Protein backbone atom coordinates (compact mmCIF):
# COMPACT_ATOMS: atom_id res chain seq x y z
CA UNK A 1 0.00 0.00 0.00
CA UNK A 2 1.25 3.53 -0.66
CA UNK A 3 2.12 5.40 2.56
CA UNK A 4 -0.48 7.70 4.16
CA UNK A 5 1.30 10.96 3.28
CA UNK A 6 1.70 10.00 -0.37
CA UNK A 7 -1.92 8.84 -0.50
CA UNK A 8 -3.17 12.12 0.97
CA UNK A 9 -1.14 14.19 -1.47
CA UNK A 10 -2.23 12.08 -4.41
CA UNK A 11 -5.88 12.23 -3.36
CA UNK A 12 -5.83 16.01 -3.18
CA UNK A 13 -4.18 16.25 -6.59
CA UNK A 14 -6.67 13.85 -8.18
CA UNK A 15 -9.66 15.55 -6.62
CA UNK A 16 -8.52 18.94 -7.90
CA UNK A 17 -8.17 17.60 -11.45
CA UNK A 18 -11.59 15.90 -11.37
CA UNK A 19 -13.37 18.92 -9.87
CA UNK A 20 -11.95 21.05 -12.69
CA UNK A 21 -13.47 18.60 -15.20
CA UNK A 22 -17.00 18.55 -13.82
CA UNK A 23 -18.44 20.17 -16.94
CA UNK A 24 -16.44 17.83 -19.15
CA UNK A 25 -17.83 14.85 -17.24
CA UNK A 26 -21.38 16.11 -17.77
CA UNK A 27 -20.75 16.74 -21.47
CA UNK A 28 -19.25 13.26 -21.94
CA UNK A 29 -22.25 11.65 -20.25
CA UNK A 30 -24.62 13.55 -22.54
CA UNK A 31 -22.63 12.52 -25.62
CA UNK A 32 -22.80 8.86 -24.60
CA UNK A 33 -26.56 9.07 -23.96
CA UNK A 34 -27.09 10.45 -27.46
CA UNK A 35 -26.05 7.12 -28.94
CA UNK A 36 -29.38 5.18 -28.89
CA UNK A 37 -27.77 1.83 -28.07
CA UNK A 38 -31.09 0.06 -27.54
CA UNK A 39 -30.95 -3.68 -26.89
CA UNK A 40 -32.75 -5.44 -28.45
CA UNK A 41 -31.94 -5.23 -31.29
CA UNK A 42 -28.50 -3.71 -30.60
CA UNK A 43 -28.62 -0.32 -32.27
CA UNK A 44 -25.70 2.12 -32.57
CA UNK A 45 -23.18 -0.21 -30.91
CA UNK A 46 -20.44 0.45 -33.44
CA UNK A 47 -20.56 4.28 -33.48
CA UNK A 48 -20.71 4.37 -29.68
CA UNK A 49 -17.74 2.00 -29.35
CA UNK A 50 -15.74 4.00 -31.89
CA UNK A 51 -16.52 7.26 -30.07
CA UNK A 52 -15.09 5.79 -26.86
CA UNK A 53 -12.11 4.34 -28.72
CA UNK A 54 -11.17 7.60 -30.43
CA UNK A 55 -11.22 9.48 -27.15
CA UNK A 56 -9.04 6.97 -25.33
CA UNK A 57 -6.66 6.50 -28.25
CA UNK A 58 -5.97 10.24 -28.11
CA UNK A 59 -4.92 9.76 -24.47
CA UNK A 60 -2.34 7.09 -25.26
CA UNK A 61 -4.47 3.97 -25.02
CA UNK A 62 -4.05 1.09 -27.44
CA UNK A 63 -7.57 0.42 -28.69
CA UNK A 64 -9.09 -2.78 -30.07
CA UNK A 65 -12.56 -3.44 -31.42
CA UNK A 66 -13.82 -6.99 -31.02
CA UNK A 67 -16.94 -8.20 -32.78
CA UNK A 68 -18.69 -11.17 -31.20
CA UNK A 69 -19.28 -13.03 -34.41
CA UNK A 70 -21.93 -15.67 -33.99
CA UNK A 71 -23.16 -14.38 -30.63
CA UNK A 72 -26.94 -14.14 -30.11
CA UNK A 73 -28.24 -11.15 -32.06
CA UNK A 74 -25.04 -10.51 -33.99
CA UNK A 75 -25.61 -9.63 -37.65
CA UNK A 76 -24.24 -7.25 -40.24
CA UNK A 77 -27.12 -4.91 -39.45
CA UNK A 78 -26.55 -5.16 -35.69
CA UNK A 79 -22.90 -6.16 -35.15
CA UNK A 80 -21.90 -6.88 -31.55
CA UNK A 81 -18.91 -4.50 -31.37
CA UNK A 82 -16.94 -4.19 -28.11
CA UNK A 83 -14.17 -1.69 -27.45
CA UNK A 84 -11.20 -2.43 -25.17
CA UNK A 85 -8.56 0.21 -24.45
CA UNK A 86 -5.29 -0.44 -22.57
CA UNK A 87 -2.58 1.93 -21.40
CA UNK A 88 0.67 0.45 -20.15
CA UNK A 89 2.21 2.08 -17.11
CA UNK A 90 5.72 2.98 -16.11
CA UNK A 91 6.78 -0.50 -15.04
CA UNK A 92 5.67 -3.91 -13.87
CA UNK A 93 2.45 -4.05 -11.89
CA UNK A 94 -1.16 -5.18 -11.89
CA UNK A 95 -3.84 -4.21 -14.39
CA UNK A 96 -6.97 -2.41 -13.20
CA UNK A 97 -9.89 -2.70 -15.60
CA UNK A 98 -13.08 -0.60 -15.68
CA UNK A 99 -15.85 -2.42 -17.55
CA UNK A 100 -19.10 -0.70 -18.56
CA UNK A 101 -21.86 -1.94 -20.82
CA UNK A 102 -22.98 0.48 -23.51
CA UNK A 103 -26.36 -1.10 -24.26
CA UNK A 104 -29.58 0.26 -22.80
CA UNK A 105 -33.12 -1.09 -22.54
CA UNK A 106 -36.10 0.15 -24.53
CA UNK A 107 -37.36 3.58 -23.52
CA UNK A 108 -40.98 2.67 -22.85
CA UNK A 109 -43.61 5.32 -22.17
CA UNK A 110 -43.96 8.01 -19.51
CA UNK A 111 -40.98 10.21 -20.38
CA UNK A 112 -41.20 13.98 -19.93
CA UNK A 113 -37.86 14.58 -21.70
CA UNK A 114 -36.33 13.23 -24.90
CA UNK A 115 -34.71 9.93 -23.77
CA UNK A 116 -31.70 10.42 -26.05
CA UNK A 117 -31.13 14.16 -25.78
CA UNK A 118 -28.93 14.17 -22.66
CA UNK A 119 -30.96 16.80 -20.79
CA UNK A 120 -29.16 18.59 -17.92
CA UNK A 121 -31.45 20.00 -15.24
CA UNK A 122 -31.50 20.49 -11.46
CA UNK A 123 -28.04 19.00 -10.96
CA UNK A 124 -28.90 15.83 -12.91
CA UNK A 125 -28.38 14.36 -16.36
CA UNK A 126 -31.55 12.76 -17.78
CA UNK A 127 -31.75 10.13 -20.49
CA UNK A 128 -31.99 6.43 -21.17
CA UNK A 129 -28.79 4.94 -19.83
CA UNK A 130 -27.87 7.99 -17.72
CA UNK A 131 -28.07 5.85 -14.60
CA UNK A 132 -27.57 2.39 -16.13
CA UNK A 133 -24.77 2.93 -16.95
CA UNK A 134 -23.38 5.66 -19.18
CA UNK A 135 -22.89 7.98 -16.22
CA UNK A 136 -20.64 5.33 -14.69
CA UNK A 137 -18.77 4.84 -17.96
CA UNK A 138 -18.15 8.58 -18.26
CA UNK A 139 -16.98 8.76 -14.65
CA UNK A 140 -14.50 5.92 -15.21
CA UNK A 141 -13.08 7.62 -18.32
CA UNK A 142 -12.63 10.91 -16.47
CA UNK A 143 -11.08 8.99 -13.55
CA UNK A 144 -8.35 7.37 -15.64
CA UNK A 145 -7.69 10.56 -17.58
CA UNK A 146 -7.29 12.41 -14.29
CA UNK A 147 -4.82 9.76 -13.15
CA UNK A 148 -2.77 10.22 -16.30
CA UNK A 149 -2.82 14.02 -16.12
CA UNK A 150 -2.00 14.14 -12.41
CA UNK A 151 1.51 12.88 -13.08
CA UNK A 152 0.98 10.01 -10.65
CA UNK A 153 3.28 7.02 -10.66
CA UNK A 154 1.33 4.38 -12.59
CA UNK A 155 3.02 1.00 -12.88
CA UNK A 156 1.04 -1.86 -14.33
CA UNK A 157 -1.76 -0.99 -16.71
CA UNK A 158 -5.15 0.69 -16.91
CA UNK A 159 -7.94 -0.70 -19.08
CA UNK A 160 -11.39 0.54 -20.00
CA UNK A 161 -13.95 -1.44 -21.95
CA UNK A 162 -17.33 -0.62 -23.41
CA UNK A 163 -19.15 -3.90 -23.91
CA UNK A 164 -22.52 -4.90 -25.33
CA UNK A 165 -25.57 -6.98 -24.53
CA UNK A 166 -25.38 -6.91 -20.74
CA UNK A 167 -29.12 -6.28 -20.66
CA UNK A 168 -29.68 -9.56 -22.53
CA UNK A 169 -27.15 -11.74 -20.71
CA UNK A 170 -23.79 -10.38 -21.86
CA UNK A 171 -23.07 -13.16 -24.35
CA UNK A 172 -22.03 -10.78 -27.12
CA UNK A 173 -19.99 -8.73 -24.66
CA UNK A 174 -18.17 -9.75 -21.50
CA UNK A 175 -18.90 -13.46 -21.91
CA UNK A 176 -17.43 -13.44 -25.43
CA UNK A 177 -14.34 -11.54 -24.28
CA UNK A 178 -13.88 -13.67 -21.14
CA UNK A 179 -13.88 -16.84 -23.23
CA UNK A 180 -10.93 -15.37 -25.15
CA UNK A 181 -8.87 -14.38 -22.10
CA UNK A 182 -9.66 -10.68 -21.87
CA UNK A 183 -10.78 -10.95 -18.24
CA UNK A 184 -8.22 -13.38 -16.85
CA UNK A 185 -4.87 -12.94 -15.10
CA UNK A 186 -2.25 -11.93 -16.06
CA UNK A 187 -4.07 -9.79 -18.65
CA UNK A 188 -6.26 -8.27 -15.91
CA UNK A 189 -5.97 -8.44 -12.12
CA UNK A 190 -8.72 -6.21 -10.71
CA UNK A 191 -12.08 -5.24 -12.24
CA UNK A 192 -14.48 -2.46 -11.29
CA UNK A 193 -17.87 -2.43 -13.02
CA UNK A 194 -19.53 1.02 -12.65
CA UNK A 195 -23.08 -0.31 -12.29
CA UNK A 196 -25.62 2.03 -10.61
CA UNK A 197 -25.62 0.61 -7.10
CA UNK A 198 -25.39 3.95 -5.26
CA UNK A 199 -22.27 6.01 -4.73
CA UNK A 200 -21.64 4.86 -1.14
CA UNK A 201 -21.89 1.12 -1.74
CA UNK A 202 -19.46 -1.58 -2.83
CA UNK A 203 -21.27 -4.43 -4.56
CA UNK A 204 -19.36 -7.68 -4.16
CA UNK A 205 -21.68 -10.06 -6.00
CA UNK A 206 -25.17 -11.11 -6.97
CA UNK A 207 -27.77 -13.83 -6.59
CA UNK A 208 -28.16 -16.53 -9.20
CA UNK A 209 -31.02 -17.07 -11.61
CA UNK A 210 -32.79 -19.94 -13.34
CA UNK A 211 -35.28 -19.16 -16.08
CA UNK A 212 -37.34 -22.09 -17.25
CA UNK A 213 -40.51 -22.92 -19.14
CA UNK A 214 -43.05 -25.42 -17.86
CA UNK A 215 -45.58 -26.72 -20.37
CA UNK A 216 -48.61 -28.76 -19.36
CA UNK A 217 -50.33 -30.95 -21.96
CA UNK A 218 -54.00 -31.68 -22.47
CA UNK A 219 -56.33 -32.87 -25.22
CA UNK A 220 -58.25 -30.57 -27.55
CA UNK A 221 -62.05 -30.87 -27.77
CA UNK A 222 -65.10 -28.70 -28.45
CA UNK A 223 -65.55 -26.01 -25.83
CA UNK A 224 -69.19 -26.99 -25.39
CA UNK A 225 -68.12 -30.50 -24.36
CA UNK A 226 -65.01 -30.00 -22.21
CA UNK A 227 -65.54 -33.43 -20.67
CA UNK A 228 -64.36 -34.92 -23.96
CA UNK A 229 -61.05 -33.10 -23.72
CA UNK A 230 -58.42 -32.43 -21.09
CA UNK A 231 -57.76 -28.80 -20.16
CA UNK A 232 -54.04 -27.97 -20.05
CA UNK A 233 -54.81 -24.65 -18.31
CA UNK A 234 -56.43 -26.49 -15.42
CA UNK A 235 -53.32 -28.66 -15.17
CA UNK A 236 -51.21 -25.47 -15.01
CA UNK A 237 -53.49 -24.17 -12.27
CA UNK A 238 -52.62 -27.29 -10.31
CA UNK A 239 -48.91 -26.49 -10.75
CA UNK A 240 -49.40 -22.94 -9.48
CA UNK A 241 -51.51 -24.16 -6.57
CA UNK A 242 -48.75 -26.60 -5.61
CA UNK A 243 -46.19 -23.77 -5.84
CA UNK A 244 -48.36 -21.59 -3.59
CA UNK A 245 -48.94 -24.32 -1.03
CA UNK A 246 -45.53 -25.98 -0.89
CA UNK A 247 -42.76 -24.09 -2.71
CA UNK A 248 -43.33 -20.43 -1.91
CA UNK A 249 -43.35 -20.97 1.89
CA UNK A 250 -40.07 -22.91 1.64
CA UNK A 251 -38.40 -20.16 -0.37
CA UNK A 252 -39.58 -17.40 1.96
CA UNK A 253 -38.11 -19.23 4.95
CA UNK A 254 -34.60 -19.36 3.46
CA UNK A 255 -32.23 -16.52 4.32
CA UNK A 256 -28.77 -15.87 2.97
CA UNK A 257 -25.60 -14.53 4.52
CA UNK A 258 -25.06 -12.59 1.28
CA UNK A 259 -25.65 -8.86 1.98
CA UNK A 260 -28.32 -8.64 -0.73
CA UNK A 261 -30.38 -5.46 -1.05
CA UNK A 262 -33.24 -4.87 -0.62
CA UNK A 263 -33.80 -7.11 2.39
CA UNK A 264 -36.66 -8.98 0.72
CA UNK A 265 -34.14 -10.38 -1.76
CA UNK A 266 -32.20 -12.11 1.02
CA UNK A 267 -34.67 -14.95 0.63
CA UNK A 268 -35.04 -17.21 -2.37
CA UNK A 269 -37.69 -15.93 -4.78
CA UNK A 270 -39.81 -17.25 -7.62
CA UNK A 271 -41.62 -15.03 -10.10
CA UNK A 272 -44.13 -16.25 -12.67
CA UNK A 273 -43.11 -14.18 -15.67
CA UNK A 274 -45.86 -15.20 -18.06
CA UNK A 275 -48.55 -17.76 -18.88
CA UNK A 276 -49.69 -18.68 -22.38
CA UNK A 277 -52.51 -21.16 -22.90
CA UNK A 278 -55.18 -22.15 -25.34
CA UNK A 279 -55.90 -21.18 -28.93
CA UNK A 280 -55.50 -17.57 -30.05
CA UNK A 281 -58.64 -15.42 -30.15
CA UNK A 282 -60.32 -15.15 -33.51
CA UNK A 283 -60.95 -12.01 -35.55
CA UNK A 284 -63.16 -9.65 -33.58
CA UNK A 285 -61.86 -10.96 -30.27
CA UNK A 286 -64.04 -14.07 -30.13
CA UNK A 287 -62.45 -17.02 -28.33
CA UNK A 288 -61.66 -20.24 -30.09
CA UNK A 289 -64.33 -22.78 -29.06
CA UNK A 290 -61.75 -25.33 -27.97
CA UNK A 291 -60.42 -26.98 -24.88
CA UNK A 292 -56.73 -25.92 -24.64
CA UNK A 293 -54.31 -28.75 -25.23
CA UNK A 294 -51.23 -26.79 -24.15
CA UNK A 295 -50.33 -24.21 -21.51
CA UNK A 296 -46.88 -22.70 -21.01
CA UNK A 297 -45.54 -20.86 -17.98
CA UNK A 298 -42.17 -19.09 -17.73
CA UNK A 299 -40.64 -18.92 -14.25
CA UNK A 300 -37.84 -16.74 -12.87
CA UNK A 301 -36.19 -18.41 -9.89
CA UNK A 302 -33.55 -16.37 -8.05
CA UNK A 303 -31.18 -18.43 -5.93
CA UNK A 304 -28.84 -17.78 -3.05
CA UNK A 305 -25.18 -18.68 -2.76
CA UNK A 306 -26.12 -21.34 -0.21
CA UNK A 307 -28.25 -23.14 -2.84
CA UNK A 308 -27.12 -25.32 -5.73
CA UNK A 309 -28.58 -24.96 -9.20
CA UNK A 310 -29.19 -28.71 -9.31
CA UNK A 311 -31.07 -28.57 -6.03
CA UNK A 312 -33.18 -25.64 -7.24
CA UNK A 313 -34.22 -27.53 -10.37
CA UNK A 314 -34.85 -30.77 -8.47
CA UNK A 315 -37.22 -28.97 -6.15
CA UNK A 316 -39.47 -27.97 -9.06
CA UNK A 317 -39.21 -31.37 -10.75
CA UNK A 318 -40.24 -33.08 -7.51
CA UNK A 319 -43.48 -31.07 -7.36
CA UNK A 320 -44.23 -31.77 -11.02
CA UNK A 321 -43.61 -35.48 -10.54
CA UNK A 322 -45.95 -35.48 -7.53
CA UNK A 323 -48.68 -34.16 -9.83
CA UNK A 324 -47.91 -36.88 -12.38
CA UNK A 325 -48.57 -39.46 -9.69
CA UNK A 326 -51.56 -37.76 -8.08
CA UNK A 327 -53.46 -35.98 -10.87
CA UNK A 328 -55.23 -37.89 -13.62
CA UNK A 329 -53.91 -37.08 -17.08
CA UNK A 330 -51.17 -34.72 -15.86
CA UNK A 331 -48.26 -34.51 -18.30
CA UNK A 332 -45.59 -31.83 -18.54
CA UNK A 333 -42.41 -30.69 -20.27
CA UNK A 334 -39.68 -28.65 -18.53
CA UNK A 335 -37.26 -26.59 -20.62
CA UNK A 336 -34.21 -24.71 -19.33
CA UNK A 337 -33.86 -21.19 -20.75
CA UNK A 338 -31.03 -19.54 -18.82
CA UNK A 339 -29.06 -20.05 -15.63
CA UNK A 340 -26.43 -18.17 -13.64
CA UNK A 341 -24.67 -19.39 -10.50
CA UNK A 342 -24.53 -16.86 -7.62
CA UNK A 343 -21.20 -15.12 -7.19
CA UNK A 344 -19.58 -13.15 -4.39
CA UNK A 345 -16.12 -11.62 -4.16
CA UNK A 346 -14.14 -11.35 -0.93
CA UNK A 347 -15.00 -8.07 0.78
CA UNK A 348 -11.42 -8.10 2.11
CA UNK A 349 -9.94 -8.68 -1.34
CA UNK A 350 -7.81 -5.97 -2.95
CA UNK A 351 -10.38 -4.29 -5.20
CA UNK A 352 -13.14 -4.22 -2.57
CA UNK A 353 -10.77 -3.05 0.15
CA UNK A 354 -9.15 -0.25 -1.86
CA UNK A 355 -12.48 0.95 -3.24
CA UNK A 356 -13.98 1.02 0.25
CA UNK A 357 -11.02 3.05 1.51
CA UNK A 358 -11.45 5.49 -1.38
CA UNK A 359 -15.16 5.92 -0.60
CA UNK A 360 -14.30 6.70 3.02
CA UNK A 361 -11.74 9.28 1.84
CA UNK A 362 -14.08 10.93 -0.67
CA UNK A 363 -17.42 10.81 1.15
CA UNK A 364 -16.23 10.78 4.74
CA UNK A 365 -18.23 7.68 5.64
CA UNK A 366 -17.63 3.97 5.48
CA UNK A 367 -19.40 2.24 2.59
CA UNK A 368 -22.00 -0.48 2.79
CA UNK A 369 -21.02 -3.83 1.26
CA UNK A 370 -23.93 -5.24 -0.70
CA UNK A 371 -24.92 -7.88 -3.23
CA UNK A 372 -27.31 -7.28 -6.10
CA UNK A 373 -30.67 -9.06 -6.29
CA UNK A 374 -30.23 -9.41 -10.07
CA UNK A 375 -27.21 -10.40 -12.11
CA UNK A 376 -24.71 -8.36 -14.09
CA UNK A 377 -21.48 -9.09 -15.94
CA UNK A 378 -19.49 -10.11 -12.84
CA UNK A 379 -20.89 -13.60 -13.47
CA UNK A 380 -18.83 -13.97 -16.65
CA UNK A 381 -15.66 -12.47 -15.18
CA UNK A 382 -15.87 -14.87 -12.24
CA UNK A 383 -17.11 -18.07 -13.88
CA UNK A 384 -15.58 -17.78 -17.36
CA UNK A 385 -12.58 -15.52 -16.80
CA UNK A 386 -11.76 -17.17 -13.44
CA UNK A 387 -11.04 -13.71 -12.02
CA UNK A 388 -12.39 -13.36 -8.49
CA UNK A 389 -11.22 -9.83 -7.68
CA UNK A 390 -14.18 -8.05 -9.26
CA UNK A 391 -16.77 -5.66 -7.80
CA UNK A 392 -19.44 -3.27 -8.99
CA UNK A 393 -19.13 0.37 -7.97
CA UNK A 394 -20.47 3.46 -9.66
CA UNK A 395 -22.82 6.43 -9.54
CA UNK A 396 -26.52 6.11 -10.09
CA UNK A 397 -29.48 5.16 -7.92
CA UNK A 398 -30.37 1.54 -8.52
CA UNK A 399 -34.13 2.12 -8.31
CA UNK A 400 -33.98 4.52 -11.30
CA UNK A 401 -32.55 1.96 -13.73
CA UNK A 402 -34.91 1.16 -16.64
CA UNK A 403 -37.42 3.78 -15.44
CA UNK A 404 -38.86 6.68 -17.49
CA UNK A 405 -37.01 9.96 -16.85
CA UNK A 406 -33.96 7.98 -15.76
CA UNK A 407 -31.22 10.26 -14.45
CA UNK A 408 -27.85 10.37 -12.75
CA UNK A 409 -26.91 13.00 -10.15
CA UNK A 410 -23.91 15.07 -11.28
CA UNK A 411 -22.43 15.31 -7.78
CA UNK A 412 -22.53 11.52 -7.55
CA UNK A 413 -20.68 11.17 -10.85
CA UNK A 414 -17.97 13.54 -9.65
CA UNK A 415 -17.66 11.69 -6.34
CA UNK A 416 -17.52 8.28 -8.02
CA UNK A 417 -14.86 9.47 -10.47
CA UNK A 418 -12.75 10.47 -7.47
CA UNK A 419 -13.32 7.10 -5.82
CA UNK A 420 -12.44 5.17 -8.97
CA UNK A 421 -9.31 7.23 -9.63
CA UNK A 422 -8.04 6.88 -6.06
CA UNK A 423 -8.85 3.17 -5.91
CA UNK A 424 -7.06 2.52 -9.22
CA UNK A 425 -3.99 4.44 -8.10
CA UNK A 426 -3.88 2.49 -4.83
CA UNK A 427 -4.31 -0.83 -6.63
CA UNK A 428 -1.53 -0.34 -9.20
CA UNK A 429 0.84 0.87 -6.47
CA UNK A 430 0.07 -1.77 -3.85
CA UNK A 431 2.95 -3.86 -2.63
CA UNK A 432 2.71 -7.63 -2.65
Please state the structural category: alpha/beta
**Proportion in helices:** 25-40%
The number of helical elements comes to 10
How many DSSP E strands? 16
Order of helices and strands: HHHEEEEEHEHEEEHEEHEEHEHEEH
As residue ranges, the low-confidence spans are none
Largest sheet: number of strands, sense, barrel closure: 6 strands, mixed
Taken as a percent bin, the fraction of beta residues is 15-25%
CATH architectural type of the largest domain = 3-Layer(aba) Sandwich
Mean pLDDT: 96
CATH superfamily of the largest domain: Zn peptidases
Q: Please give the CATH class of the largest domain.
A: Alpha Beta
CA radius of gyration: 24 Å
CATH topology of the largest domain: Aminopeptidase
Number of domains: 2
- Note the quaternary state here: single chain
Question: What features would you describe in this structure?
Answer:
With 432 residues, the chain is α/β, with parallel strands linked by helices. The protein folds into two domains: 4-206 and 342-428, Aminopeptidase; 208-340, Alpha-Beta Plaits (2-Layer Sandwich), CATH 3.30.70. Helix content is 34%, strand content 22%. The chain contains ten helices and 16 strands. The strands form four sheets. It has a six-stranded mixed sheet with strand order 1-2-6-3-7-15. A four-stranded antiparallel sheet has the order 10-11-9-12, with helices on one face. A three-stranded antiparallel sheet has the order 4-5-16. Strand 4 and strand 5 form a beta hairpin. The mean pLDDT is 96.
Amino acid sequence: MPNDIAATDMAESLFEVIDARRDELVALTCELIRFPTINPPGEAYQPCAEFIGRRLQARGFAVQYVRALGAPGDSDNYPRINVIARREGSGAGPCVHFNSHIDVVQTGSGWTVDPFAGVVRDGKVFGRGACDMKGGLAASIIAVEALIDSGARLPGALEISGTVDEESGGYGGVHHLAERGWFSPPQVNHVIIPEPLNVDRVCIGHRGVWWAEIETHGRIAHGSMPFLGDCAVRHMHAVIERFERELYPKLAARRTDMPVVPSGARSSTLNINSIHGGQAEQQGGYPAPCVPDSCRMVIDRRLLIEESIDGVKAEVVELLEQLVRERAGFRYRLRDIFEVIPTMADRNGPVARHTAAAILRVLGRAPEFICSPGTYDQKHIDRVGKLKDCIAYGPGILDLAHQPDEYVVIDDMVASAKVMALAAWSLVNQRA
